[in-house]
Amino acid sequence: MTQRLGPRGQTVTSGASRGKAALFLLPAVVILGSLVVYPLVYSLFRSLFDASGNEFVGLRNYVDTFTDPRTLIAFRNNVIWVIVAPAAVTCLGLIFAVLTERIRWATAFRLILFMPMAISLFASGVIFRLLYEEDPERGVANAALVGVHDVFASPSPYPGARPRSGFDAGEQGYTSTATVHAGDVVFLPLVGYSPQHLPTSARPVFQPQSGTTELRGAVWLDVSAGGRSGQIDAPERGLPGLTVEIVRDGAVVSTTTTGDDGGFTFAGLQAGKYSVRLPSSNFELPFRGLTWLGPALVTPVIISSWIWIMTGFAITFIAAGLSAIPRDALEAARVDGATEWQVFKRVTVPLLAPVLLTVLVTLVINVLKIFELVFVIAPGSVQEEANVLALQMWQVSFGTGGDQGAGSALAIILFVLVAPAMLYNIRRFRRERS
Question: Where in the cell is it found (predicted)?
Answer without folding.
Answer: Cell membrane; Secreted
